[in-house]
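Q: What would this chain look like folded?
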Amino acid sequence: MIATVITPAAPAFADTPSRVPVRGLEGTRSTHVVHDGTDTGPADPAAPVTAQVFLAGDSRSLAAYARAVSDPRDRRYGHYLTAEQTRARFGPAQHRIDAVSEWLRGTGLSIVSAGSRAVVAQGTVAQAAEAFGTRFDNYTLYGTPFRAAVDPVTVPAAVGRDVLTVTGLTAVTGSRPSGPPPGTGSRTASRATSGGAPTSPCPAHYGDTPATDLPPAYGHPAQWAPCGYTPRQVRDAYGITGTGLTGKGVTIGIVSIGNEINALPDADRFATEHGEPPFAPGQFTAYVPADARPEEASGEFAMDVQAAHAIAPEADIAFVVGSRARYGDDVLDAIVRIVDRHLADVVSGSIIVGYTPGSAPDAVAAYERAFQEAAVEGITFTFASGDSGGGGTDDGIRTVEYPASSPWVTAVGGTTLAIGPVNSYRWEIGWATDEVPLSGDGSSWEAELPGYQGKASGGGTSTVFPQPFYQRGVVPASFAGSPAMRTVPDVAALADPDLCLLVGETDYNLDGSLSYKVGNGGGTSLSSPAFAGVEALLVQAHGSLGFANPALYARPRSAYHAIADNPAGTPDTVAFAVVKHGFVDLITPGQYADSNLVHAPGYNTVTGLGSPTRELIESFRRRPQGVDGGAGT
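A: My prediction, written as structure tokens:
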């Protein structure tokens, strides 16, 4: 006998005029699960649900004021508000918070917390269906089980203007599949050279040691790459040395989702061993929620600390660890903690929480509001543009990563930087590498040059966010499209892990023990905190930047290094050799097409405006005419 599953009808009020749809959920993870997942039947009506109802307040006025205080051409430029003033002026009134709470309570849900940012409610699937006018089904997407709202989420018209977005309705209900991600794996032993594991000569500078012991590349010897740069080398190359700027008096926030307890000891040890100043007492502060478990191994976020400290060694660091307890989103939680308490002047996030279109977090509207509040309060946010080149596709549409694609943050792309003798800036190419291994007998390269696609700076054009005002007239129409949309990144800094900044981290050994190791950092996870370090210098010179993009885009092209092209197959093609995992590889940077990227003079979607120069830094010492840059109301 075939069992028949009867799907409950949607609540009768779901499509009545007394209800309105919740905007801001289009193209998010919720719709991605329902659209692309496999429906496995109705959700258990008694299963628990925690919903976060984010509140809109006066969103339109908030966005307008955020633009005004960020635009150097506006008379209100730099007239920032305190966090308390921002909430009072643009947040919801108490009676509107009460109205939303009353509605949720009337459906049987219990109120966990109610504040100016969100009302959090708990209950059952059946009660959530009543509250939000939708059915709930179970889905499987890429092997992961979800519960998701089948129908468009709606709320009573009486509170429609109060609701910014709703999260928590779509949730993972089981464990994700285990195992390595596709495309990973170790190299085979057949690639080992007959002479044993090779070693690099590790020259101090690029160009010191031609690789005459290796097969030629493009008709000439490649160069052996340095085995990582010191902080002093990077500061010298980018023109920071001699400015007198160190970040003193400025606080850089690091958004973290891991309580990496060795972040400070590792940074101090690396600094001491490489002639850099360790953190002074009180210079590093960790903000750790009670539910954050200690992590002994350092990683992504410890690297962020060291990259920011390398560029701005006297800046304070606020290491802010997020929690899922408040809003079900640890990244948003860390951002909100920084904004609500003004814990930092400049913030870096080496984090990707989704991509647009298709899989942005359901809280994307809440993220955007937090970034606008940050702009109003004079806080600068930067985010890594990602390490996936031109991104993937969703229904044939090219995607870009979020939060970097937000028009209210500075998206930082990556470069391959060559630092020559006396720490000179030699050249810089957009990070998009191809690589090929040395043959087993060492007589040739294993494949036709440039070889196989490696990693690349993230970049592209949003299909969600329209072109912001500061990109008009700067970003070519060939990138922005028609209608013109937001493009990323905005700026860039060194990121290529084959030619990058040294970092020291506590890491696990094969036997499970821990030890401290020094090696190359890399990825836009390094370029974002490095550029945040540059922004800390700008704040030291200029005062609070707030949302930095309008001021960055207003600078002349000469304020940024022109990022070079590097077409393969010419006598001038740049290539360098490295030893990775016991094997020699030839790296050819600037292979943009292989990573779905396009290079162009000036702005491009590999490196944005370019990387920082001494001219950029010095230009912020001069305040715009007629702008006082002070705080105001």
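Residues 1-16, 178-195, 624-633 have pLDDT under 50 and may be disordered.
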